[in-house]
Amino acid sequence: MKRIISYAGLVLGVAGAAMPASAAQADAIPRTQVAERQQPILIHDGLSSPVGMAHDDGGNLYVANWSAGTVLRFAPDGRRSVFADGLSGPSGLAISRAGDIYVASYSEDLVWRFTPSGKRSVFVRGLATPAGLSFDAKGRLLIANRRTHQILAAHPNGKIDVAAEGLQTPVGAVELPNGDILVSNIAGGISLVSGRLQARTINADLASPGPGIVRSGADAAYVVDYGGTTISKVDRNGRRTVIADGLSSPVGLALAPDGSLVVATWGANSVFRIGRP
């Protein structure tokens, strides 16, 4: 029987879920490599199940605080404030080129849009447990729609395209420069969508890849392993390099303005910094 992975009411796994047939394509993947590992440094604590994170142009870090139903804002000097409250299961978070903040409500099946001043409106609704968010090169918001096993792409006007399907409980996605998409699936595995909607599994080594996935260069992404303790770099060929370890259930991940990574963990309810990989 498959385990159900949950924390503070957020159910990410699916009992009895089976890996898709494409998982067999991961059999020939090279072994995991280990780089010089970075030591995580605690920068913010006292959070409540932090998930999605992103920086604005001013260097402020926004964090979706799942259990508290809030979005917190951390200034570059570390000062914290509540940017938004009264949310239901805020999960993924992304910031557009215009500076608007988008927050997925995992519990309400919608995505909120906030102006930098905090004014909110519903961007899209009618989703199915939306998790991680990111933007593609066209300015579309990529939404990991976990329950339908799809990655959706929402245009600025709210029109929705299907960017990928046939996934296994996707919770995060990021576009590569050539238009391919790397996807993290909480039930296990990293998938690549290349030229077609249908995805294929390229790496099945991680226990439970979480919503935290950010691009690394032209052909790879950094990925958290919620079911483990690591941050890894996985390239489009499935090669995995561990860059940090010792984190307690890492879930969220964001690239800082200085090139370092910030990691949100559920085990410690904290945010850590990892030096430039």
Automatic annotation (TrEMBL):
Entry keyword NADP: no
Signal peptide positions on this chain: 1-23
Keywords for the protein's UniProt record, in alphabetical order: Signal
Coiled coil (residue ranges): none
CDD domains membership: NHL
Gene3D superfamilies: TolB, C-terminal domain
Protein name from the UniProt record: Serine/threonine protein kinase
Organism: Comamonas faecalis
